[in-house]
Design a protein that fits this description.
single chain, alpha+beta, 4-stranded mixed β-sheet, 4-stranded antiparallel β-sheet, about 25% helix, about 35% strand, globular, Vancomycin_resist_VanW
Length: about 270
Amino acid sequence: MSKKLLSQRNKFFYFLAIWYRRLKRYFCWYFDSNTYAKKRQIEKLPFRVKKHQSVLIRKLGDSDMILQYNKVTNLKIAIERLNGIIIKPNEVFSLCRLIGLPTKRKGYLPGMELFNEEARPGIGGGLCQIANLVHWLVLHSPLDIIERHHHSFDPFPDDGRILPFGSGATIFYNYIDLQIKNNTPYTFQFNFWLSQKCLEGELRIDEELPYSYHVFEREHEFLKIEDEFFRKNEIWRNKIAKFASGKILETELLIKNFSKVKYTPECFKNSN
């Protein structure tokens, strides 16, 4: 059995560890060479690259549903800081920098967060749903992902999952961030809104691209190793010419996932 870190056993040292990492990130934000996206505009750019939506309220195992409803409040507050954000050429989009530190004073409520292989309540919990959406939109664009983190475990069985396993991203203010760099000559824009049942978002651009992207999954499998379960897959992407009868210009491997599973997969429930 692995020995717990001091910060995992003592709340005071946990607090110090968190703020040490946050201060390092603040230093990077203000002294590195990046130009961070911060301009927002109400008027939408003319062309849509990709649109997607994700269900707001989901039953996740035995977790308290109030955390799901609180998450909706947290998302409303966060998207006010993100909607309409412009990413010009050579700019970096930092999700944590734009949202800021989630606090009670700002109106954030306890939502679900994943930490140390368990789900627990935390102020601002649930904002990973935005990170998932941003990451999925960017995978369908020529933007470059320069920082992305994912959960090291799969906490709940699939409940109406549409996207491939492991295609999302996680954030924890501010040192676990999702950062996107625009190394293209185009200008991009994120737009977000809440419908009755979904968080919705789109990525737009100032000029129409001559190609599109299709993201798909390969080699998905559940594994049992000794008494533990694991899940693996690969996420691939085709670059497709829009004006050449759908010709595939390029196929690339984006992500290889291998994660511990915290539940018994259906395929193993009836096995001896």
